[in-house]
Design goal:
mainly alpha; 219 residues
């Protein structure tokens, strides 16, 4: 007599024809919904500001092996374990980004109170810096959760990542734009998947840049 166990993605892949594909897609979609809920809870648990970075890092730990079928209580436990373990490091790595966010907010306010050529120039600079920061931020969950380099080296890599990997940066931007378009057109999808889908897609793209480095991030 064998013990009961939850079917894995490998088991579902053995289901013939479209039935197996549909089961895999539904399983992944269900897990993404669960990950989105966990991100919200993790963000709130850290008082939003201190919770967002570790929540995204913990979500990355789940989406990194989404296909192997971690669900239910197992997914809950893994998320909170990763959230606690990455809390300090993720928040320290996020500090420059929070600082940049404040400066960008001030710059945005300044743009609205300027006019003419100055406003146009400031507006372009604001967009460029914002886009660069978004791409750099996509690497944070991977670097925070999967590498243990010193803070200075990790921050240096995060700030240089968009310049080091321009092709992947473009892929991240295109992916986020596509996800944003889908969310805008089909609002229920945004409600169900929230940040889980962007973390999944951008994490996969960012991790591909770090994969050749083995156990340490590029210097």
């Amino acid at each position: 007599m064998t013990a009961d166990r939850r079917p894995t993605a490998a088991d579902l892949a053995d289901v013939p024809g479209w039935a197996g594909v549909v089961m895999l897609v539904l399983r992944a979609a269900t897990q993404l919904v669960g990950i989105h809920v966990l991100i919200v809870l993790g963000t709130l648990a850290g008082g939003v500001v201190a919770g967002l970075a570790p929540a995204a890092t913990a979500a990355r730990s789940l989406t990194a092996h989404l296909a192997d079928g971690t669900a239910g209580l197992a997914m809950w436990r893994e998320f909170w374990r990763a959230w606690r373990e990455s809390f300090r490091r993720a928040n320290l790595l996020a500090l420059p980004f929070w600082g940049a966010a404040v400066l960008l907010a001030v710059d945005a306010w300044a743009v609205t109170h300027s006019d003419g050529a100055v406003r146009a120039a400031m507006g372009i600079a604001l967009v460029v810096v914002s886009v660069y920061a978004v791409v750099a931020l996509a690497y944070l969950p991977v670097v925070a959760g999967e590498f243990d380099d010193p803070w200075a080296a990790s921050v240096r890599y995060l700030l240089l990542a968009p310049a080091l990997h321009p092709g992947r940066g473009l892929a991240i931007l295109v992916s986020l734009a596509a996800i944003g378009w889908v969310y805008a057109v089909v609002a229920p999808v945004a409600v169900l998947f929230g940040l889980a889908l962007p973390v999944l897609v951008t994490g996969w793209i960012a991790a591909s840049a770090l994969a050749p480095a083995g156990s340490e991030s590029p210097r």
